[in-house]
C-alpha cells in the first residue's frame, strides 16, 4: 500500500484531538432533539446510527475533495511536465506536513490562518447545514455530515496537499478517505471511553510526541523530493 495512505491515516488519528474541538460539538449536537431521545434504550441505539451516518457523510465529502484536488493537479502536472511538477508538489506537501506538526505540537499556530481561506466558502454552506437541525432520522444525518465535511480545517487542508501529489483523482480520494478513517475512533466513541481518549489526545506530551513523528516524516519526505529534483 502507498505510504501516503498510512501517513494520511496517522494524521487523522493523531490530529483527533483537533477533531474533538472542531467537530466533536457538532457530533453531540446532531443527536439533540432526535426521535426517541427520552427512551434510554432507544436513545443509545439511535445515537450510534446518527453518528455512523454523520461520519459516513463526512468521509464522502473528504473523498470528493481529494478526488477534485488529486485529479486537477494530476492534469496540470501532465500538461506542464509530469515528473518535475509532482516532485515540486511533494516538496510543498512536505512543508505542509511540517507546518501541521508544528501546529499539533503547539509550537506554531500559523496553520490556522489557512482556515480563513475556507471561511469564504463555508459561509455559503453553513446555513444549509444548520437548516437540517434538528435531524428527523439517522438517514438525515448523512447529508448533514456531507455538508459539515467542508468545514474549514487546517488539518484537512494539510492532508489535501498529499492528495494533490497522489497523481490521480482516485489516489486523491484514497488519501482523504484514509485520513477520514483515522479520525473515526475519536468521532465515534462516546461516554467514558471518549472522555479518556479526549484526555489522552489533549495531553501535551502525547501531542508533542505525535508532532515529532509527523515532523520527522515531513522532513524525510521533503529531503527525498529535493534529491529527486536536483
Automatic annotation (TrEMBL):
Keywords of this entry: Membrane, Transmembrane, Transmembrane helix
- Membrane-crossing ranges are 6-30, 51-76, 82-104, 169-193, 205-226
Pinpoint the Urease accessory protein UreH-like transmembrane domain residues.
Answer: 7-219
What InterPro entries does its record include? UreH-like_TM_dom
Record's superkingdom? Bacteria
Q: State the protein's name.
A: Cytochrome biogenesis protein
Q: What is the lineage of its organism?
A: Bacteria, Pseudomonadati, Pseudomonadota, Gammaproteobacteria, Vibrionales
Amino acid at each position: 500500500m502507498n505510504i501516503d495512505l498510512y501517513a494520511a491515516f496517522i494524521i487523522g488519528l493523531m490530529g483527533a484531538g483537533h477533531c474533538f474541538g472542531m467537530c466533536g460539538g457538532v457530533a453531540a449536537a446532531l443527536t439533540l432533539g432526535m426521535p426517541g431521545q427520552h427512551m434510554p434504550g432507544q436513545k443509545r441505539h439511535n445515537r450510534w446510527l446518527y453518528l455512523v451516518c454523520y461520519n459516513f457523510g463526512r468521509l464522502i465529502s473528504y473523498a470528493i475533495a481529494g478526488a477534485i484536488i488529486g485529479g486537477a493537479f494530476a492534469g496540470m502536472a501532465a500538461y506542464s511536465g509530469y515528473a518535475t511538477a509532482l516532485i515540486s508538489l511533494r516538496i510543498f506537501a512536505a512543508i505542509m506536513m511540517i507546518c501541521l506538526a508544528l501546529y499539533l505540537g503547539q509550537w506554531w499556530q500559523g496553520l490556522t490562518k489557512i482556515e480563513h481561506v475556507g471561511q469564504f466558502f463555508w459561509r455559503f454552506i453553513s446555513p444549509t447545514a444548520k437548516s437540517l437541525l434538528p435531524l428527523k432520522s439517522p438517514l438525515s444525518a448523512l447529508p448533514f455530515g456531507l455538508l459539515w465535511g467542508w468545514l474549514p480545517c487546517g488539518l484537512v487542508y494539510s492532508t489535501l496537499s498529499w492528495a494533490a501529489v497522489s497523481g490521480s483523482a482516485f489516489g486523491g480520494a484514497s488519501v482523504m478517505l484514509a485520513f477520514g478513517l483515522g479520525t473515526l475512533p475519536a468521532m465515534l466513541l462516546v461516554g467514558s471511553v471518549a472522555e479518556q481518549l479526549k484526555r489522552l489526545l489533549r495531553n501535551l506530551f502525547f501531542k508533542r510526541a505525535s508532532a515529532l513523528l509527523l515532523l520527522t516524516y515531513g522532513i524525510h519526505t521533503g529531503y527525498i523530493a529535493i534529491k529527486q529534483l536536483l
